[in-house]
């Protein structure tokens, strides 16, 4: 058989065989550009999982106006940029209301908000969560192989905490940085002697930045350290592994201290840890119920993985899987201690990122024990089984996104009133005030947004509340007053205007006003409303709905008359 001969300059080709010469004169066509890499990437399970995660989260992004926390963080981010670029003064702000450093995530979120509004900031958070999903896949792939990695990633990506964290707050960025830290730990296990210390340093800084971004992430630090130890032990001597963990711990402490000092965030961290509102306390049963609803499937499969590993793996590998499986309980236990389910689903994202790897391992063990179920058939059954948990998780996330009032009507009503006013603005409640500051151009001037009186003036006898509010209204000379009322009926825009907020002195009007004010949980709301109504300096300019999926409400806006 004749073979083609490579061309060499100056060589005599006259004696070559006909076929060989032909092959030189007409060389075989070079292969067409391969599209296999692109096709493989598109058909990759990780691509499909991320696509489903993105679609489910994107349905939430435009579903409601900004939550109070989102509004507050993005507003502070805008003020940070104004301060850095233009020297604008930032009014003194209590860091007790922040769950993370005000100079790490807020400026980043504000950049996304400047491009796409609240939707842009939420899409940035979605990108953070998609990156955390990819890091989970590559971490589990290195530790347990392709099958468990795909299962772990699917369980994580289709859980409620992950779907719902397309949310413009500190948490998604902190979760991503924690995931990056774990991935760097695994990379360090397969590196050279000095390379492992370099990766440990990078992992420590990433984890410190995660903790400074959202203080709640501190709860997962012991898990990361234990994960590092049992990831490194099979690949290096015990002494070297212990030194790497000690180095990781020291770098974590130093980096975190430097970040918190440089950002001036120690006061906020102290307040977050030690100052808890009594209203946040909830029963342990509620925490347990919510934990089961958000992460029960992952916890059960992680338990299967732990039990299987104890009987099938060596001690070091079994210990690693036990640590990963038990991580599903870390956040619920912390919330048990604090006796609150507040923000439980957001905090669970840290724990289930690790627990999902044990759950993926458990899935593999279950499939291997099913006779005759292999390959594509097993994948098909897994997809079918995941449909219901994914749908349930999305439905739960949808409810969370509609648990706070839709502020579209309120913002549309107050914007022109504030634009016509130049004096102090009073908006009842921290949440509505944060939302108003975020959506209105005047929100950048925080000095205008005031709280000149209490709605529970305990030092003033109830019989004197009318004069208390009348005096403060006169002294403060508020240009805009916006009050909110919880109702037990549908708050159609045309309902409360004359019936609720302009009582004519009849018993029906007075009783209705008192009932609504009492439902609002603000003892002085009735007296304040009557004081505003009786003050000739103010006129009612707008009334409308302030409803969420679980409660109805109305807002009322008064403006100070010109010349008053």
Describe what is shown at a glance.
By secondary structure, the chain is mainly alpha-helical.
State the strand order across the main sheet.
Answer: 1-2-4-3
Number of contiguous helices: 23
- Helix proportion range: 55-70%
Main sheet properties: 4 strands, mixed
Order of helices and strands: HHHHHHHHHHHHHHHHHHEHHEHHHEE
Strand content: under 5%
Q: Which structural class do the helices and strands define?
A: mainly alpha
Q: Tell me the number of strands.
A: 4
Question: How confident is the prediction overall: mean pLDDT?
Answer: 85
Cα distance, first to last residue?
Answer: 106 Å
Tally of discrete structural domains? 2
Low-confidence stretches: 1-26, 490-499, 501-509
Query: What overall form do the CA principal axes indicate?
Result: elongated
Rounded radius of gyration (Å)? 30 Å
């Amino acid at each position: 058989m004749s073979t083609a001969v490579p061309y060499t300059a100056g060589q005599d080709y006259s004696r070559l065989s006909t076929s060989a010469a032909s092959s030189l004169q007409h060389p075989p066509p070079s292969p067409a550009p391969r599209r296999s890499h692109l096709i493989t990437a598109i058909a990759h399970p990780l691509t499909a999982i991320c696509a489903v995660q993105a679609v489910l989260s994107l349905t939430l992004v435009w579903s409601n106006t900004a939550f109070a926390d989102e509004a507050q963080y993005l507003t502070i981010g805008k003020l940070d940029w104004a301060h850095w670029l233009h020297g604008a003064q930032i009014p003194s702000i209590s860091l007790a209301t922040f769950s993370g450093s005000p100079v790490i995530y807020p400026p980043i979120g504000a950049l996304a908000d400047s491009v796409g509004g609240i939707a842009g900031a939420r899409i940035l958070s979605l990108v953070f969560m998609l990156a955390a999903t990819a890091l989970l896949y590559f971490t589990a792939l290195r530790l347990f192989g392709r099958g468990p990695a795909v299962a772990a990633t699917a369980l994580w990506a289709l859980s409620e905490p992950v779907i719902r964290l397309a949310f413009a707050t500190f948490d998604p960025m902190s979760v991503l940085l924690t995931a990056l830290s774990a991935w760097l730990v695994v990379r360090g296990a397969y590196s050279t002697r000095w390379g492992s210390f370099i990766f440990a340093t990078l992992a420590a800084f990433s984890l410190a930045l995660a903790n400074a971004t959202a203080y709640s992430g501190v709860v997962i630090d012991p898990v990361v350290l234990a994960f590092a130890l049992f990831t490194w032990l099979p690949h290096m001597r015990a002494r070297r592994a212990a030194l790497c963990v000690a180095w990781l711990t020291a770098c974590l402490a130093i980096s975190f201290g430097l970040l918190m000092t440089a950002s001036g965030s120690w006061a906020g961290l102290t307040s977050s840890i030690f100052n808890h509102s009594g209203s946040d306390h909830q029963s342990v049963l509620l925490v347990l119920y919510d934990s089961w609803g958000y992460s029960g499937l992952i916890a059960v499969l992680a338990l299967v993985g732990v039990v299987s590993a104890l009987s099938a793996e060596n001690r070091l590998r079994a210990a690693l899987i036990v640590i990963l499986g038990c991580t599903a309980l870390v956040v619920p236990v912390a919330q048990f201690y604090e006796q609150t389910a507040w923000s439980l689903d957001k905090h669970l994202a840290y724990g289930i990122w690790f627990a999902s790897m044990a759950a993926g391992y458990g899935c593999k063990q279950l499939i291997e024990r099913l006779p005759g179920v292999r390959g594509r058939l097993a994948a098909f059954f897994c997809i079918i089984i995941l449909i219901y948990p994914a749908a349930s998780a999305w439905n739960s996330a949808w409810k969370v996104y509609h648990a706070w009032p839709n502020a579209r009507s309120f913002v549309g009503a107050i914007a022109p009133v504030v634009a016509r006013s130049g004096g102090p603005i009073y908006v009842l409640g921290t949440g509505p005030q944060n939302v108003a500051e975020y959506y209105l151009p005047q929100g950048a001037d925080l000095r205008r947004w005031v709280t000149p009186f209490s709605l529970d003036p305990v030092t003033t006898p109830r019989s004197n509340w009318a004069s208390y509010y009348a005096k403060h209204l006169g002294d403060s000379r508020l240009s805009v007053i916006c009050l909110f009322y919880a109702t037990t009926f549908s708050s159609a825009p045309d309902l409360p205007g004359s019936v609720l907020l302009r009582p004519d002195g009849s018993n029906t009007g007075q009783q209705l006003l008192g009932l609504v004010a009492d439902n609002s949980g603000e003892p002085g709301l009735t007296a304040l409303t009557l004081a505003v109504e009786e003050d000739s300096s103010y006129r009612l300019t707008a009334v409308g709905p302030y409803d969420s999926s679980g409660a109805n409400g109305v807002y009322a806006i008064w403006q100070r008359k010109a010349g008053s």
